[in-house]
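Anyone up for a design puzzle?
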């Protein structure tokens, strides 16, 4: 088997509801957010051995993100994205992660407003 340098996990269009915003109506009403996450980690051992213990468990990461977002209250999209990025990079194998969160209907004539943050890990 050829050498595998990096795995890229993509969680696409995770649709959740949370309290996001600082206007009075935003602080009282759940709003939709759409989350896209990219996580990089070295997966050579998992690819060679087919051993679950040698792979990053994206289901565990996703469940932690869902819990944090759905139970949270956020004034700024920046804070929400930063929190999700911290969860996405929480495993020691992660070398890079990028998180984009869309807030649909945040502006009158736009489909959504989105913010992206990235983190390079050791």
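Challenge accepted. My sequence:
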């Amino acid at each position: 088997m050829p050498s595998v340098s990096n795995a890229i996990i993509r969680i696409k269009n995770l649709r959740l509801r949370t309290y996001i915003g600082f206007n009075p109506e935003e602080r009282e009403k759940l709003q939709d957010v759409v989350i896209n996450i990219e996580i990089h980690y070295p997966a050579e051992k998992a690819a060679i051995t087919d051993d679950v213990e040698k792979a990053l468990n994206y289901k565990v990461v996703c469940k932690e993100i869902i819990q944090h977002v759905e139970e949270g209250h956020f004034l700024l999209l920046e804070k929400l994205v930063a929190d999700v990025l911290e969860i996405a990079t929480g495993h020691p194998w992660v070398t890079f992660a990028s998180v984009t969160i869309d807030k649909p209907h945040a502006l009158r004539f736009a489909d959504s407003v989105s913010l992206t943050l990235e983190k390079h890990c050791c």
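A detail worth pointing out: The chain has a mean pLDDT of 94.
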